[in-house]
Amino acid sequence: MTKKNKIVLVIMLMVGLVIFYFSVKQISYHSLMDAIAHLHWSWLVVAFLLMASSLLLEARVVQVLIRQQLPTYSFWAALRVPLVEQLFNGITPFATGGQPAQLVALLQSGVDAGRATSSLLMKFIVYQAMIVVNFIICLALGFQYVADRIHGMIWLLVFGFIIHFAVIVSLLMIMFWYRLTKKLLKLMMLVLKKVMTNSNRYKQLEQTLNEKVDSFYQESLKLKANKQVLVRISCLTLFQLLIYYVIPYFILLALGVTNANILLVTTLHVLIVMVISLFPIPGGAGGAEYSFSVVFSTFVQQGNRLVVAMFLWRIITYYLGMFSGIIALAFEPKKTSK
């Protein structure tokens, strides 16, 4: 980690403490301790295990992709990749640091740059596609519930869906309509040329975008040629996301909430994650806690239990991954034999 990354990590931990302080400010210490004392720890363990399983499944996706070229690539080397990703996703705006961090982790374990980039690109395509699939299903199931009770979040949900949908549509266009995409890109650059005053910056942007599109198209040909691997990693990713999305249900069970519907809770968590992705602050700090409190206040009316639920959720789905990433960085990966 660079010095800047360490500073951001400390800042994010401080922000978390500040949010926790203001969340419990209006709640008595006795009622907070009472909510913690009555936790059903077995359900909380299940929630932790689900988060761990989600990371293990992501590691398996990495291993399957890398083993297309390196059959000796180990699962433990692959596990380091999603852990490092969790850390850098958590300390960068819009989780932009996760992709470069994964690439570095693969290079450190002996994977060549071309294979590492190719595998991460395939993983990104499938991940985005499965997010859109999950969101469409959950939007159909839970949109009316959110619309009836939480009017202020509707436009955030729609905006979040449009962004993710636009990403996957752009990727599919490059995969299946390469020439059309190149023409549209050329047209877009002509429009930008009239707006951008710095000619050098314009040329650099044009070159970068063309290189990205060409690189992605070449990798998509490999992806389409290996349909068995594509189906396999798609199923693994879909299951990984499902496991992750169901975590709040078991947190509610840990708090003694037995009237929650697992399908509805999972659906609402998908919508929350979509909203969080819109916040530029690393980890969606502030927005994540607010969204969770608003959405799940229907199931947990007592303020003390809602605060505990919110922070258990953040610890499991956010801070656990970050600290696991710190531990992963501390261990030098074993080089994979070619």
From TrEMBL:
Output one GO MF annotation: phosphatidylglycerol lysyltransferase activity
Q: What is its main location?
A: membrane
Q: Which GO terms describe its cellular component?
A: plasma membrane
Q: Which residues cross the membrane?
A: 7-24, 36-57, 124-147, 153-178, 229-256, 262-285, 306-331
EC identifiers of the protein:
2.3.2.3
**One Pfam family here:** LPG_synthase_TM
- Spell out the subcellular localization from the entry: Cell membrane
Which transformation does this protein catalyse, written as a reaction? L-lysyl-tRNA(Lys) + a 1,2-diacyl-sn-glycero-3-phospho-(1'-sn-glycerol) = a 1,2-diacyl-sn-glycero-3-phospho-1'-(3'-O-L-lysyl)-sn-glycerol + tRNA(Lys)
Would the keyword Lipoprotein be found if you checked this record's keyword annotation? no
**Membrane topology according to the record:** Multi-pass membrane protein
Q: Which UniProt keywords apply?
A: Antibiotic resistance, Cell membrane, Lipid metabolism, Membrane, Transferase, Transmembrane, Transmembrane helix
What does the record list as GO biological process?
lipid metabolic process; response to antibiotic
List, alphabetically, the InterPro entries matched: L-PG_synthase/AglD
Q: What class of enzyme is it?
A: transferase
Q: What does this protein do?
A: Catalyzes the transfer of a lysyl group from L-lysyl-tRNA(Lys) to membrane-bound phosphatidylglycerol (PG), which produces lysylphosphatidylglycerol (LPG), a major component of the bacterial membrane with a positive net charge. LPG synthesis contributes to bacterial virulence as it is involved in the resistance mechanism against cationic antimicrobial peptides (CAMP) produces by the host's immune system (defensins, cathelicidins) and by the competing microorganisms.
- Record's family? Belongs to the LPG synthase family.
NCBIfam families reported in the protein's UniProt record: flippase-like domain
Q: What is this protein called?
A: Phosphatidylglycerol lysyltransferase
Organism, per UniProt? Ligilactobacillus agilis DSM 20509
What are the top taxonomic ranks of the organism?
Bacteria, Bacillati, Bacillota, Bacilli, Lactobacillales
